[in-house]
Amino acid sequence: MDSVCHNKNMTKDDEIVSDILKSQLKTYPASTVTILGAGDFESFIPAGKFKSVKSVDINKQAVVISNLEPSDLLITNLLLEKMGYAFFINVLKKVKPQFVCCSFHVGNSLGVMEEELTSRLLQESYELFSRSEISLSNGKTLIQLDFTVSSLLLGTSEPAKSSYKVSGKELLSLSVYNVGTQKCEPLYQWGPGVRDFYLIHYIISGKGTYVSGHNEYKLKAGDCFLSYPHMETTYYADSEDPWEYAWVGFTGTEAGLILNSTDFTRDEPYIRGVSHGKEILELMQAIYKAKGNSFSSGIHMTGKLYELLGFFVEDAVSEPVQMGAKLYVQSAMDYISENYSNPISIEDIAGFVGISRSQLFRCFQRVAGISPKEYLTRYRIKKACQLLGQTSFSMTAIANSLGFENSLYFSKAFRKVQGVSPSEYRVQIQES
Fold it and tell me: Which of 59, 248, 359, 429 could bridge across to 389 with cysteines, CB 3.0–4.6 Å?
């Protein structure tokens, strides 16, 4: 990467990858580091921080396992998608790090996937510490996963960052996606990037900047900001008084409905000086404490999430969404929940509710933030996930059970929502 760093024609994607490495080298309390990736990393290593640094450009030479020595921090950017899981685990066992940082592209040639990697690290007594998903300008998506040895995470009194991502079954109406806290370094930045779930940050101390779309907001302790699904965001800490924040990410059919009754909007996705800041922080901490991939853990986490969102609804001062629109949408959702297994159309749903298709579309956009067609598809895909994990039904049987025209259309819709094919998803569930 050294050649990239000094290249006047450095691309935005190169800058993003460079920033990731710089952040990894600054964030973790390590004295020794091993870096395996593409490029020359010398220019990114903070002066005087590490007692020793071992770096290998995997584009120029094969990594010789015997030459690797134990270190505190292992950074393996793009190693997985070039050499695979087995090679990576051998490296891991040789280096024996406390912290492991991995980056890889979605849809890479070796089929490296997030769930499989997390499962393998769990077997080696590591757990997920943080997760980032970054959309690159070339159309690819870069996943960054950081892990720590389980005992270290539990025993650290004040970690720079602690987070948990749920990989178990999602509840249909509302479910926690991830939760955590982070005490940021000056100018620490996430993004620009997009997510496929809602994410609320509560600022515990310090200050920083949140960029959503084309708008920029200066925020400080006591404020909250919301990231909407599929909306590009960036946020970074102040250079002199960097923020510390807690966050919870969530998804589900009720998420948009609930948030539409708060003071968060897509035009102003923040709230200054929230009234129940203490309670909100305590509930985020309670969600983290209840973490787990079992069905019971999911219920406990979602229960706390409902309480948290309840404070935002209670404190809302803006005009509530028109009651008629909410009733129309709720009626449509009830109809979908009872008839999704049939080949129903948007016209059928609008006819049941008693309004036109265009009126139904406007109501859904206002209340839920998505179209009725997208809601119907996502509802069916959620049900498909349950069937793939709990039954051995064929893809044709599942497609027919969920109202899809055929298995090909089902597979295409499933991949668009979940990022993998139904068959790949079933394998991931069985191996987790």
Answer: 429
